[in-house]
Write a structure and sequence with these properties.
Layout: E1 2-7, H1 13-28, E2 31-36, H2 40-45, E3 53-56, E4 59-60, E5 78-80, E6 83-85, H3 90-101
Parallel strand pairs: 1-2
Antiparallel strand pairs: 1-3, 3-4, 5-6
């Protein structure tokens, strides 16, 4: 399992999210990769939906994002029941980690 944070320099939300992701990666015994996006071409190639984007095993943690195609160099806003934020809700990341881990193995 792998957690990725995709970001570009100049968008401050990724720095606020980084300590949370580091703690979650440690708790799950997985790696955290930082992917800095530098060009619009790179944003399109990597299907970058804005900074910060969080992926677990290559899938965006925000539900329903597989169908989006508005890739580019923008600061990302997340909308959830808690309101609007520049970082995804922790619950979305935890759910993505649970899904990636698969069902628990029987004892």
């Amino acid at each position: 399992m792998k957690i990725e944070i995709l970001y570009f320099d100049g968008c401050p939300s990724h720095e606020r999210l980084l300590p949370v992701l580091e703690q979650m990666a440690d708790a799950h015994g997985t790696q955290l990769d930082r992917v800095r996006i530098e060009t619009v071409d790179e944003a399109e190639r990597l299907r970058f939906l804005g900074s910060p984007s969080v992926r677990v095993d290559g899938r965006d943690v925000e539900p329903g994002m597989d169908e989006r195609s508005d890739f580019g160099m923008t600061c990302r806003l997340y909308r959830s029941a808690a309101g609007q934020s520049g970082v995804p809700p922790r619950e979305w990341i935890e759910e993505a980690l649970r899904e990636a881990a698969g069902p628990p193995t029987p004892d």
